[in-house]
Design goal:
The chain is α/β, with parallel strands linked by helices and about 270 residues long. It contains eleven helices and eleven strands. The chain has a single domain, classed as Metallo-dependent phosphatases (Purple Acid Phosphatase, chain A, domain 2, 4-Layer Sandwich), CATH 3.60.21. The strands form two sheets. The protein has a six-stranded mixed beta sheet. The protein has a five-stranded mixed beta sheet with strand order 4-5-6-8-7, with no helix packed on it. Helix 4 crosses helix 5 and helix 5 packs across helix 7. The two termini are about 40 Å apart.
């Protein structure tokens, strides 16, 4: 009788909260999509926030889709490299980086890229609108390597697919719930939607992801979506993880200016 009562008590105990390793602090930033103004504001907010807290092994993770749709993709990539010179900033590949790199391989891939925000990315590398509009697809394909140096493409090719931090997994789009973490396909990690988003059961880790736009941080227990659609909403979001605590920080467009907004408390 005592054993059965003990088992009942244990079954009702709250499961431990997901946590990152002790002594670490993570700032995980959602899809930037060429919004350098919001990115700059969020960087400033993160630097102030981190400086005001006790020392930690602080790491920044960008969840991919740095490029396309917004006006300053080249500037976002350049600013990311500058930030990496000063602190530990890791970058995940998104499906838009995947399309960007594929656009250098064949004209049809370039056509697909242009339909999904690639035009803005190409313009951000300094080509004039008049010249862009005058180019045929084949002419633009020939021009692309002149606009974007090989070193820049190599840098983007080096973006990671997933990052594990304690009980969390950071990935751009999500994972295939039917596969173990070490068996995931890169295409799923960059492109998956319904099979991942509709999965309500437990996953090996709490997955923090972008790719699918949500109005606010979307915490479903097994996953947390933080893509708040910066390119169209004017809101760029970072999830801050330390121990078992979560906070949200955001940069938001106020009129013609991007300002940082810090919101304490758990994302749920």
């Amino acid at each position: 009788m005592l054993r059965s009562l003990r088992n009942i008590f244990v079954s009702r105990t709250e499961p431990p909260r997901a946590r990152v390793p002790d002594g670490t602090r993570y700032y995980v930033i959602g899809d930037i999509h060429g919004r350098l103004d919001l990115f700059e504001a969020l960087i400033a907010a993160i630097e102030r926030d981190d400086a005001a807290l006790p020392a930690a092994d602080t790491q920044v993770v960008l969840l991919g889709d740095l490029v396309d749709r917004g006006p300053e993709s080249a500037g976002v990539l350049a600013r990311t490299r500058e930030w990496q010179d000063k602190r530990d900033v890791r970058v995940l590949a998104g499906n838009h980086e995947d399309m960007f790199l594929a656009a250098f391989e064949r004209p049809e891939a370039l056509r697909h890229f242009l339909k999904h925000g690639g035009r803005e990315t190409i313009l951000s590398y300094g080509v004039s609108r008049d010249r862009f509009n005058a180019c045929s697809l084949e002419e633009l394909f020939d021009l692309m390597p002149q606009l974007v140096p090989q070193a820049e493409r190599d840098y983007i090719s080096g973006f990671e697919d997933m990052i594990i931090a304690g009980d969390y997994l950071f990935v751009h789009a999500g994972i295939d719930p039917s596969r173990a973490l070490d068996e995931q396909k890169r295409t799923d990690m960059l492109w998956i939607r319904d099979r991942f988003l509709n999965h309500t059961g437990p996953l090996d880790k709490v997955v923090v992801h972008g790719h699918t736009i949500c109005e606010t941080v979307s915490d479903h227990g097994n996953r947390i979506g933080i893509d708040t659609g910066a390119f169209r909403s004017g809101v760029l979001t970072a999830l801050v993880l330390e121990g078992d605590r979560r906070r949200v920080m955001q940069a938001s467009q106020q009129g013609d200016e991007a300002v940082e907004i810090a919101r304490d408390g758990r994302s749920d």
